Amino acid sequence: MLETSRGCGIADPLDAFASMRPAPSRTAQPYTRAMRLMVIRALAILQLIRIPLALAVGSDMWLATLLTRWNPAANNRPAAQMELWIALTIAALIGGGLLGFAAGMNDLLDVRRDQATNPTRPLPAGRVRKPHAALVTFGSLVTALIASMFFGEDSLHVALLAAAGIVAWNTFGRHIPAIGIPMMGLAHAGVMFIPWPGQSFTLPACLVFAQTIVTTTLLHQRSGKRPVLNWSSTAVLVLTSLACIAGLVVLGFMRNADAWPPPNAAWLAVFPLLAIAWFAWLLRAAIVEHRPAESSLLLQRAIVAAPPATAAAWALSLERPTAAAAFAGTAAICWTLAYLAREIHGMLAAPPVWRG
Q: Fewer CB in 10 Å around end: N or C, the chain?
């Protein structure tokens, strides 16, 4: 979680706001304290579930849902038959639920370490109690699984596999970054198959996987996480990641994936390429930044803004300008939240990674 420039917890912005108002009367003090406590708890819950990152993961789910609806071969899928707003709501619940489960489980397992190294996080700071955090974590998982059932039984199976991967990552994967980082990448890419497990076109999932691997590895190094990635572990990480990408590509060929963009409009491929170039520009800014804290902040912005921006590029390549505009708006919201992160006491928390 990014620290604020004040180095304090959630109470600081609220105290500053309160100091600008007249002192409440004695009869109003209990009500004021109760409202203030509710705001603190609400912000802490948002911080716990990584709300800006949830928007990014939701963008991947929305794109996967729209790809399902746009493909004539998936006309019999529930995601293609239900109303659009219902399908997108279900997709958001699945993506946000899985992320909330991963983030909450990570924080619950690391609460003792955070008491020494990150005391301003919601749990060690006491803004969220352990039972409440466990309830939010378990509730997020249940929400994701129930929502996935509306996309079909096979979608529920994929969601269960993703949940099992999250548990495996939290128990041992995060302690072995050479293996854990590819596990995280597969989890992010795996959500692309929940609306339609038989999805043939796997290039969007490959791109999601690659973006996750690169940003998570750089964030791991720039933040000084432990264990450190040495040459041997980096080699294992690279080889494992390449094998996963090759597997996704082969899966697409085995499922007779169509060319993308369509052959009669190959120039539309320029939009995904521009998205990749923009993502590389974001990474370059983070790499050349010599201050670790600023570099990590730039990486955080790339993590939350890249998925919706890339989804907008895919929509443009399919000549879907309305969807592209919606994704672009989501990217702008994520980028704005990233800039506000310092003032809103780290609402833009780091995605679950190794803390040391």
A: C
Q: Please indicate, yes or no, if residue 53 is contained in any of the structural domains.
A: yes
Q: Is 266's pLDDT higher than 60? A: yes
Cβ-Cβ contacts under 8 Å for 55 (sequence gap 6 or more): 304, 308, 330, 333, 334, 337
Residue 9 in any domain: the answer is no
Indicate whether 334 belongs to any domain.
Answer: yes
- Give the C-alpha separation, 283 to 298, whole Å: 8
Distances in Å between the Cα of 87 and the Cα atoms of 46, 171, 202, 332, 347 are: 24, 32, 21, 23, 27
Looking at residue 299, its pLDDT comes to: 86
Torsion on CA atoms 69, 70, 71, 75, rounded to nearest 10: 40
3-state helix, strand, coil in the chain (%, to 5): 75, 0, 25
Q: Would you place residue 159 in the very low, low, confident or very high pLDDT band (cuts 50, 70, 90)?
A: very high
Alpha carbon of 288 to those of 78, 229, 347: distances in Å?
Answer: 46, 19, 25
Q: How many domains does the chain have?
A: 1
C-alpha 316/C-alpha 270 separation (Å) is 9
What's phi and psi for 338, nearest 5 deg? Answer: -65, -40
Tell me the pTM. 0.80
Residue with tokens 């912000």: 43
Peptide bond into 227 cis (omega under 30): yes
Output the six-digit token pair for 243.
Answer: 């094998």
Return the residue matching tokens 């795996």.
Answer: 190
Give the pLDDT confidence score for residue 30 in this predicted structure. Answer: 62
